[in-house]
Design goal:
alpha/beta, two-stranded antiparallel sheet, 7 strands, globular
């Protein structure tokens, strides 16, 4: 999928002249040219420019940011898994946007030797993030978004099933979306990772009412409760439901709330709740 420079500037919040300066001065991207001479930026070009913008926004000078990107790229190219995953991810997404499931499955099979965790982190999660961006930019139809999401859901579910939801004697772990959360794909990926770490997964998925969640915890006494929150919401709402959960459970499992919808600040300490800003906060 190609983009004109005006579209890229709007997508990234970077002025057109800045994009041109980055291209001419640093060669950060080399967009193709249409027959009429207009620049045509690829998805990879947009991703690279977004990465540069994020580094600049975090305080790096442009030259420093590009050096960091080049170092990261060199490390990635030396890793055949990473290079393969990037190629497969882009081509599989293009196939899925054409509703060509057969082609996407052929591409995914090229990564058969790759671990589940690497497939999740390098193929499925980045693919879903890209779909979310395209959706926000009104570049996808409803049918395309549903088709890609359902494909990823099936792949992640197949992983969890193949692991038998974790070892029978593993740590009993209840995985659910945070009350009111409609999405479960990130939770599925996390459930696979936990199953690979000797957790016995009870997967509840999206839209589990708080009362039912409390009842499940009290009845089955899991060692870990993992709650996923992908859509941002008011801090007060998150805190109120977390406190209600803690106050009404009779057992004391480790309760972890995490996901892209979790604010990076303004969350108070609640005894019994871990706010997870990354996988490391969950796994350690």
């Amino acid at each position: 999928m190609g983009y004109r420079i005006k579209t890229v500037a709007e997508m990234l919040g970077v002025p057109r002249n800045t994009l041109l300066a980055w291209e001419r001065r640093y060669g950060i991207v080399q967009p193709a040219r249409q027959a009429n001479g207009y620049r045509e930026y690829s998805d990879a070009d947009v991703d690279r420019l977004r990465e540069l913008k994020n580094l600049v926004d975090s305080g790096h000078r442009v030259g420093e940011a590009i050096s960091l990107m080049q170092d990261a790229r060199a490390a990635q190219v030396s890793n055949p898994d990473a290079e393969l995953a990037e190629t497969v991810r882009g081509e599989a997404l293009d196939a899925l946007l054409r509703l060509d499931r057969r082609r996407a499955e052929e591409l995914i099979r090229r990564c058969a030797a790759m671990s589940y965790e690497r497939k999740i982190d390098r193929i499925y999660f980045p693919m879903l993030r890209r779909v979310g961006e395209l959706w926000a930019e009104d570049e996808l139809s409803v049918a395309q978004e549903h088709f890609v999401s359902n494909f990823c859901r099936e792949q992640l579910t197949a992983m969890l099933i193949s692991l038998d939801h974790g070892p029978a004697a593993g740590k009993l772990t209840l995985c659910a979306a945070f009350p009111g959360e409609l999405h479960e794909l990130a939770l599925l990926g996390i459930s696979v990772k936990l199953a690979m770490r000797n957790h016995r997964i009870v997967f509840l998925g999206a839209q589990t009412p708080l009362g039912d969640l409390i009842g499940m915890i009290n009845q089955h006494k899991p060692e870990l409760v993992c709650l996923s929150l992908t859509i941002p919401r008011a801090v007060g709402d998150i805190v109120a439901q977390a406190r209600e959960l803690v106050q009404n459970i009779r057992v004391k499992p480790r309760l972890v709330v995490g996901g892209a919808g979790l604010p990076h600040d303004d969350l108070p300490e609640i005894q019994g709740i871990t706010w997870a800003q990354s996988d490391d906060d969950l796994f350690h």
